[in-house]
Amino acid sequence: xxxxxxxxxxxxxxxxxxxxxxxxxxxxxxxxxxxxxxxxxxxxxxxxxxxxxxxxxxxxxxxxxxxxxxxxxxxxxxxxxxxxxxxxxxxxxxxxxxxxxxxxxxxxxxxxxxxxxxxxxxxxxxxxxxxxxxxxxxxxxxxxxxxxxxxxxxxxxxxxxxxxxxxxxxxxxxxxxxxxxxxxxxxxxxxxxxxxxxxxxxxxxxxxxxxxxxxxxxxxxxxxxxxxxxxxxxxxxxxxxxxxxxxxxxxxxxxxxxxxxxxxxxxxxxxxxxxxxxxxxxxxxxxxxxxxxxxxxxxxxxxxxxxxxxxxxxxxxxxxxxxxxxxxxxxxxxxxxxxxxxxxxxxxxxxxxxxxxxxxxxxxx
Length: 365
What we know:
Number of domains: 3
Distance between the termini: 63 Å
Order of helices and strands: HHHHHHHHHHHHHHH
CATH class of the largest domain: Mainly Alpha
Radius of gyration: 26 Å
Helix content: over 70%
């Protein structure tokens, strides 16, 4: 077990401790504390197995401390999203180690998130409302939101950087490159915003239609829906007699029956339908624009090779920061991810610059 894997366990313990310290519900706080202790125990066990001095346990990484800061600014629910990715990293490392050592796998190796959910489900003091609140947070936490923000900025930067370099290669001027860069920024941001609006809106409309159909079926054939609900519970391992009793009790309340059928049969989370398509579109527009404006800025003040070089430097810096930001979710090396992003971005820009150069020479000739 290498130091990187041990560090991952330490970071997970650190982040769970932060969640526990900032959780108002005492029972959920207890769950997070237990998870912190579990991860700490894994780190100690791995250090002992590697003959390392446990008194020299490394502190939380820079990545973990940055996530703590993000939690302070954006809310600690965001940490739970990052922890899901951390757990995946832990699972992958442990599975690889077990394959190399040919040892028997364990459920805890690959299902730390499931363990957390099981603790909540089986905790005698966790109320239904607390569990529902946690599950809602579990689904909507900011890991995905932060990832979307990073990728949105990356799309804007890479696409507009490539466009700007292509036009610069063909013209080497200021006015034309600036105009093309601003046009690319606006066109790309509007396209992203429209795409996001359509995606969210169509998903909402599809779910709403399915929910209405489910209500129509419930009103037209309650007996059939009762059988379906009983079968769903039976498929989860509930004894047939108990499943049929539960289904009969639920179907007597039409609104409750509809709510449960929507969740169990259609797999629709009603909370997710409350998201605003307009808000998603605006967010997408701003994130794309933030990345796309970086390679354009130098052409407001400079022209020719100076503007091209400065645009390249600024874009490379932006690409590195984006690559480094991605490590908040992957746990990979900041330098590796940062320079990989720079390499890919510069390669794309170099190709378009070369094509622009060829086209420009051809036209001039």
